[in-house]
Write a structure and sequence with these properties.
The protein is an all-beta fold. Helix content is 1%, strand content 43%. Strand 49 and strand 50 form a beta hairpin.
């Protein structure tokens, strides 16, 4: 069983100073093979349980920790041990409390005053010499009335001064850890910087001598000066797409049959040992990590096995041996493929299941994952996240070194990009299951690679056992929607409207380009200038939608259909920069292209329809039309559609009038009319053809309504209007002051009518009301006028 107990000196100057902490740990089983281990870290006290970025006003606890074995240097002795440090940049002290000892779980153990000359700790805001440090703790033996650490009441803060410093012996000085002692220092500061500032930790160090001789020189253990970005919390996008993550099976650690993954990891955790044969006889001790598909060493699928200390004599599925260390860790599977805290159920030894990284924290804090990622896009937002789980609910140890069977040290990890700390996970609670932690970052204007890492902030033992899965570097792609989302069938030479709505989680997908294909999507070229002379590329201005929280804008262009095109496909590409529009992997293309079927309407065909009408007769469509100026060989093909887009020929009526003359015709559809049924006539003659307008019939009645209207508009408005009877429509465009800016009268027939308002290009940009009145009925719609 794992039994460790860190205890700490702590200096907590609430309202004006700091906290100093010494962590000590003792444990029955360990992998503490190195004679001396050292690391440093910090914890965001303000976000201790929730995690997140460091923000102005947060309180940080700066820590160092080291472990010394009883055989270090042949004696296990460290002489004249003392700790020095300065306040990090962009921070200040946090009040006026006391130096104290705490356990590694943050519980108080012993307190000291702040004043120099009376005990082992000192804080001087402005030291006498520029080379002096602000913070000092003399470690080793405790001060007494007959042997004070500062007998003269003065304690210069330079490292060369060892007045008051004491000796420390591994496995003798408390608290103990296996065959040594583990020490941790800490002090607290308040963040005074602003968003965007980078905190740099002080050059903290442990100073000691390897000999009691007065002529012995100092040895130093120097802390890493971690950098911390002060930033606002960022919400993770739900539509993220993983990219550029080649290592460890896209951050999932792969899958396979068997408890231990057969393929070794592609990375090494510094100062840790990789274990490829975890089992009941080979445990994952402190300083070890493994890649497994089940946290049970027996691959048990039963999560209700007994825990220590209530193992009893249970056997089989209830036996404590199904849990790591004979009754401690949870039994569970990995997280890949799930989105909740529950994750996957524990798989059996014969099940093909996903793997995860399982870490038993080392005695010294250090990095736990590291990877360089290339092929990124400049000026692009990415989401760096991971799923983490505390796997031990009962690993805690009391300050006397006895098991409490409580969670103990809670895992606390930091996510780092390019050497800058971005967020901490906060303390991962036992029983909370898998928890996602992450943030959104923006690459620089010329950046195409980053280095990501995950660092362990707490020493191991007495808890701090955790699983890691689904490490992801992901982009938040924009949503590119064709609006309205439907294909068009138009005459060659006609104008078509191409409009896309761009919506994104972030606000920098501003660059766009329209392309077209006339060979079914095999090749693509620029769509070219539209009918208003505007380019097929540009920059949008995203506006945040208060309802969705997404940044949106519209791209609208009008294109004239070539007389040689049959099928035209338009698509839009979107990126964050102009260069990214031409860089593979850095732009996004809509999966809803605009399809335009260009047909030869043969405007030169002289035959026209004077009218085209339809009515229901016993549930069937009865169509009538009259022609003029017929040509030889003319025929009228009747076509039907249920959506107004896709038409099918249902019959043909030969022309009967002489050339240049006209006649009346009728056609009865043998099939019943549905809720909405559309008809049109395709006039064909001499290998040319021409379409009529559409007739709409319905077995449930036709409402007076605007089916569609061009919105926003630039110089004209096209309207699809349905009316239940013939009549005359009065179409008005009214500005925001109630003034009529255009008013026309147009005849309408029962069914579908295609109407157009022209000559609107000189109207001021703004909001207008479109009003249509017909047979005592009135429709009003709000439209927006945009500039050319």
């Amino acid at each position: 069983m794992k039994t460790t107990i860190p205890v700490c000196f702590a200096y907590n100057k609430i309202g004006g100073t700091l906290i100093l902490i010494l962590f000590f740990r003792s444990m029955a089983l360990s992998q503490a093979t190195a004679p001396l281990k050292f690391g440093n870290s910090y914890v965001n006290i303000s976000k201790k349980t929730t995690g997140g970025p460091v923000e102005p006003g947060d309180t940080l606890e700066i820590r160092t920790n080291f472990y010394v074995k009883n055989d270090y240097d042949g004696t296990g002795m460290m002489y004249k041990v003392r700790y020095f440090d300065n306040l990090p940049t962009f921070t200040d002290t946090v009040g006026n409390d006391s130096l104290r000892l705490i356990t590694n779980e943050g519980l108080p153990f012993r307190a000291y005053t702040l004043a120099p000359g009376d005990d082992a700790g000192s804080f001087i805001k402005a030291p006498p010499l520029p080379t002096d440090y602000q913070i000092r703790i003399n470690m080793g033996g405790a001060p007494t009335a007959t042997n004070p650490t500062k007998p003269n009441g003065i304690d210069p803060m330079g490292t060369a001064n060892y007045t008051g410093a004491s000796d420390l012996k591994g496995a003798v000085n408390l608290p103990l850890f296996s065959s040594g002692s583990i020490i941790c220092t800490a002090f607290r500061v308040r963040v005074t910087g602003n968003y965007g500032d980078t905190i740099v930790l002080g050059a903290g160090k442990i100073v000691y001598r390897t000999s009691a001789s007065v002529s012995a020189s100092d040895t130093m253990l120097k802390a890493t000066q971690y950098k911390i970005l002060i930033s606002k919390p960022s919400t993770l996008c739900s539509s993220s797409t993983s990219t550029n993550f080649a290592a460890e099976y896209g951050g999932t650690f792969g899958q396979g049959v068997g408890l231990n993954r057969s393929i070794p990891p592609s990375f090494l955790i510094p100062n840790y040992t990789y274990l490829n044969n975890s089992s009941t006889s080979v445990t994952i001790n402190d300083g070890y990590y493994a890649i497994v598909n089940n946290t049970s060493p027996t691959s048990s699928t039963f999560t209700g096995a007994n825990y220590q200390p209530a193992c009893g004599g249970a056997t089989g599925a209830l036996a404590c041996s199904n849990r790591e260390f004979g009754g401690f860790w949870y039994i569970g599977g990995d997280h890949t493929g799930t989105t909740t805290a529950a994750g996957n159920p524990p798989p059996s030894a014969s099940t093909n299941a996903g793997y995860m990284l399982l870490v038993n924290a080392d005695l010294a804090t250090s990095e736990a994952y590291h990877q360089v990622i290339t092929g990124l896009c400049p000026n692009t937002y990415y989401q760096f996240s991971a799923w983490i789980k505390n796997v031990c609910p009962n690993c805690g140890i009391s300050d006397s070194g006895k098991a409490t069977y409580l969670p103990g040290v809670l895992p606390n990890l930091t996510l780092v990009v390019d050497g800058i700390d971005r967020i901490s996970s906060g303390q991962m609670q036992a029983g909370a299951g898998w928890q996602q932690r992450g943030f959104v970052l923006l690459t620089d204007s010329n950046q195409n690679s980053i280095t990501i890492s995950i660092r362990n902030n707490a020493p191991g033992g007495g808890g701090n056992d955790w699983a890691l899965d689904d490490i992801s570097l992901a982009s938040c792609p924009p949503d590119l929607v064709l609006t309205p989302n439907r294909p068009d069938t138009l005459c060659q030479g006609a104008d078509d409207t191409v409009r896309f709505k761009i919506s994104a989680f972030v606000d920098n997908y501003t660059q766009w380009a329209l392309q077209k294909s006339t060979d079914g999507g095999v090749t693509w070229v620029s769509a070219g200038l539209d009918t208003l002379g505007r380019a097929a590329s540009g920059a949008g201005i995203p506006v945040k939608d208060p309802l969705t929280g997404l940044y949106t804008y519209l791209v609208t262009r009008y294109f004239r259909i070539s007389t040689t095109d049959n099928l035209i496909i338009y698509r839009i590409m979107v990126a964050s920069t102009v260069d990214n529009l031409t860089t593979n992997g850095c732009f996004y293309t809509t999966n809803q292209p605009k399809l335009v079927r260009a047909v030869n309407c043969m405007i030169s065909l002289p035959t026209t329809l004077l009218n085209f009408r339809g009515q229901l007769h016993e549930g069937l469509g009865a169509l009538q039309w009259a022609s003029s100026n017929e040509v030889a060989g003319l025929a009228y093909e009747v076509e039907r559609s249920d959506d107004g887009i896709h038409f099918t020929a249902i019959g043909s009526v030969p022309a009967t009038a002489g050339e240049g003359q006209g006649a009346a015709y009728q056609f009865n559809d043998p099939n019943p009319v549905f809720a909405q049924t559309y008809y049109r006539i395709n006039m064909t003659g001499n290998s040319i053809h021409r379409y009529s307008n559409q007739v709409l019939l319905s077995n449930s009645g036709i409402n007076f309504e605007v089916r569609s209207a061009l919105n926003p508009f630039i110089d004209h408005i096209t309207i699809d209007l349905t009316t239940p009877a013939d009549g005359t429509a009065v179409i008005s465009l009214v500005d925001m002051y109630g003034r009529f800016v255009q008013r026309v009268r147009q005849p309408v027939t029962q069914g579908l009518n295609n109407l157009t308002l022209f000559g609107l290009g000189n109207l001021p940009n703004g909001t207008y009301a479109l009003q249509i009145q017909c047979n005592d009925r009135l429709i009003s719609k709000k439209l927006v006028k945009l500039g050319k």
